[in-house]
Design brief:
Elements (H helix, E strand, L loop, with lengths): L5 E9 L3 H15 L6 E8 L5 H9 L6 E6 L5 H11 L2 E7 L7 H10 L5 E7 L5 H18 L10 E5 H7 L9 H11 L4 E7 L13 H21 L11
Parallel strand pairs: 1-2, 1-4, 2-3, 5-7
Antiparallel strand pairs: 4-6, 5-6
Helix pairs in contact: 1-2, 1-4, 5-8, 6-7
Length: 247
């Protein structure tokens, strides 16, 4: 029997985040439950070698009934992990937020409120709490994406976004298997006539665990995938069933 629909589903991708996940969940549950909203948290454990899932269940206590766990036996990477969580979600509104504690859950509440006048609300990290080389690589990547896809947003890969079920159903299936899934969502959403807005959010220092991303090989792969995806969409995807943007 299918589980009932909820108001909001939040996907949290996690790889070896046992030291962070409890604090993240403790803070985010209060935001998700505001105003009597029903919610679920979809934790996608990307082959963690620590006790990430156990730490999550412990942190949620009795509220663990709102926790859905998706487990990867082998590490699949960020993009696949996020998309697996979104596919497993049953909310009217979908969201994802990184599990490393670098986002303030109160910003998630702001994005959810702004969804009243948009179909997708995406964060822009304000004063990124990352090493300089990660910010530099991100800047180059974002410029390449804007030129290649002809879209004007900033900080495509910010790991804090909310959007309607209607938008998610329209942009799927997602073709990208790398970080380029974010530009793919933006590109398709615009072509289909959905309204997309961005909001400045805090970016906090990582307090525990080991950061991933920013390594040369994944970055080079992402740059390659930008071109491949744009060519694939031009040849094989058409914005069928486009809708008008809200007034």
């Amino acid at each position: 029997m299918a589980l009932p629909e909820v108001d909001v589903s939040l996907t949290i991708p996690a790889h070896n985040e046992a030291e962070n996940i409890g604090r993240v969940l403790h803070d985010v549950m209060a935001v998700l439950g505001e105003g009597g909203r029903t919610y679920e948290i979809v934790l996608v454990d990307d082959a963690s070698a620590d006790d990430t899932v156990a730490a999550a269940r412990s942190a949620m206590g009795e509220a663990a009934r709102n926790l859905t766990v998706v487990t990867h036996k082998q590490q699949r990477g960020y993009a696949i992990t996020v998309c697996d969580g979104l596919r497993a979600s049953r909310g009217k509104v979908l969201a994802f937020m990184d599990g490393d504690g670098q986002f303030d859950p109160r910003d998630l509440g702001t994005l959810l409120a702004d969804l009243d006048h948009a179909d997708m609300v995406a964060g822009i990290r304000n004063r990124r709490a990352d090493p300089w080389y990660r910010s530099f690589v991100s800047g180059v990547y974002n410029r390449v994406v804007r030129l290649t896809f002809g879209i004007r947003e900033l900080d495509f890969d910010c790991g804090l976004k909310v959007f309607t079920r209607e938008l998610w159903d329209a942009v799927t299936p997602i073709r990208a298997r790398s970080a380029v899934f974010n530009p793919e969502m933006f590109f398709k959403a615009h072509r289909l006539g959905f309204r997309v807005i961005q909001v400045r959010v805090q970016h906090l220092p990582r307090l525990a665990g080991v950061r991933s991303g920013g390594r040369l090989i994944p970055v080079a792969r992402a740059m390659r995938d930008v071109i491949r995806l744009r060519v694939s969409l031009a040849m094989n995807w058409r914005p069928e069933g486009a809708r008008r943007e809200r007034a």
